[in-house]
Amino acid sequence: MPEPLEHLSLPDTVHRLLRTRILNNELRAGSRVVEATIAAELNVSRSTVRLALTRLQTEGLVEISPRRHSVVTRLSHDEIQDACYARYVLEEGAVRAVLARGAGGLLGPLTEIIDRMTHAASAHDMAAVVDLDTEFHGTIVRAAGKARLTSLWSTLDGQMGAVIRSSLEEQQLDLADMPKLHQDLLDTLGVGDPESVADTLYRHYLRPDYEL
Fold first, then answer.
1. CATH 1.10.10.10 in the chain, residues?
2. How far apart are alpha carbons 147 and 135 in whole angstroms?
């Protein structure tokens, strides 16, 4: 029998494990996620699994039916565009604030994040790429020094895993394209022209099929 998971929050641990399996396609779209099976595998209670699944539903990764059947989902095109547009609008404001203050100090940290993203993409680790995407964009947003902007942006974090997974499939992009998309944004940020950065950011979120 598996050992109980050791963590301050068992639902958080189960959530991360299931999220990784979904993002890395170990659990594919349409697959059923059975509470009892997961609970037995991880030696946790069904209520713990249920809490984790509820969070995954909020993130757009599973759908829970009235009879408590959970199914791995993929976001629709409209849902992807809606989430990406919201993030674009917030980040455009952040980028302009960052450039007004000077973005030089960001280039090194962002380059290091892209290096780690490249390694994660090479290892086909979608969950790690998603986390690094959040770290990359969050670094820019926080550098704007706008607390409310950062707070609003953070509310979108949860769904980005589902957005990236669904968007890659819809656009038939490879995971290896993710570091390239971020490098393109970083290169433009380094030039320092607000309009060019805003245009690249728009393409980054809303035209992911543009020529890399």
1. 10-72
2. 17
The per-residue pLDDT for range 91-107, each reduced to its tens digit, is 999 999 999 988 788 99
**Nearest CA among 83, 44, 138 for reference residue 53:** 44
Which residues touch 163 (CB under 8 Å, ≥6 apart)?
Answer: 60, 75, 79, 80, 83, 84
| The CATH number of the domain covering residues in 10-72 | 1.10.10.10
Query: Residues of the chain whose pLDDT is less than 70?
Result: 1-8, 68, 208-212
Concatenating the DSSP letter of every residue in 146-175 gives -HHHHHHHHTTHHHHHHHHHHHHHHHT--T
Across the beta sheet with 62-64, the strand order is 32-33, 70-72, 62-64
Short-list 185, 203, 5, 12, CA closest to 95: 185
Q: How far apart are CA 96 and CA 81, in angstroms?
A: 22
The 10s digit of each residue's pLDDT in 194-205 is: 999 999 999 998
Superfamily of domain 77-206: GntR ligand-binding domain-like (1.20.120.530)
